[in-house]
Every structure is written in C-alpha cells, then in structure tokens.
Amino acid sequence: MAIGIRSLCTLNCGTSLQDNGMTRQRDIPQEAYEFRFIKAQGPGGQHVNKTNSAVELRVAVAKLGLPAFAERQIREQQRNRISSQGVLIIQAEQHRSQQRNRDAALDRLQDMILRAMIRPKKRIATRPSNAQKKRRADNKKRRGELKASRRRPDF
User: Fold this and answer.
1) What count of other Cβ atoms lies within 10 Å of the Cβ of residue 75?
2) Which of 18, 54, 129, 154 has its CA 20 to 30 A from that of 116?
3) What is the 3 state secondary structure string of 29-77?
4) 70 has a pLDDT exceeding 80
C-alpha cells in the first residue's frame, strides 16, 4: 500500500514539474521507508527533554521504484547520507511538533527525488577559434613584455 504526501508522501516527478502540460504523480511504497522518533536537541525547555519530537526518515533507495538514472543520481547526490545497506537517512528536528518534523522530512525527500529526476545536460566539446587563439597569444606576449620591462636593465 502506498500513501500520498500531505497525508504522507506523493511526489511530483519528471524532468521538470510540468511534463507535456501534465503533472506526473509518483507514490512512494510504504515498505520503502520507515520513521524513527528520537529526542530533539536545542531549546524547548522541559518539553524537549520528555518527548521524541525529532524524526529520522529511513528510505530504502532501491525500493523507491525510481528509474535507473534517477536512482544513480540520488545515490551520487546524497552519498554522505546513504548507509552501506543503501538506506537514505533524513533527520528533521526543526520544529517542536513530531508531525511537523515528519512533514519536513518528507518534503526534503521530495526535493531530493525531484533533483535526482532532472537529467544533467550533456557537455558539447568545443574548440577555440583561430581568432581566439591569436588573441590569447597576443595577450600572453603583451603580458610578457610588460613583465620584462619591469626587470633591472642589463649593462
């Protein structure tokens, strides 16, 4: 069973947010992630010491059902957050509420997946023109002459 974001986790995926005028929806399978709740750090007084309001979202990248290029991208972009078992770990503790931290973690996961779905542009190899080569050589020559003029003269 998959669940949706805002209620939990539906993602807009594609090379751009609009794909042929239609927004594509992608559901994250429920077996692909789990939440763990831990005590948050920082201000909050007695409340922060008593409740597990921080959220750790653990996502099995292989179970997300992403295209191969997107899975490679997410593994490359988030390599410091992925464990040796292939689990992406996202921590959220900005808010005092557990539900708001859960939503923040899911929003960050959504952003990561959207960034991974964008294919990088291929670089087209180019060569400098003859005029550019000549300008570069002239500039180097001029610069060398300027530096040579600063030297102590030979007697």
Assistant:
1) 15
2) 54
3) EHHHEEEEEECCCCCCCHHHHHCCCEEEEEEEHHHHCCCHHHHHHHHHH
4) yes
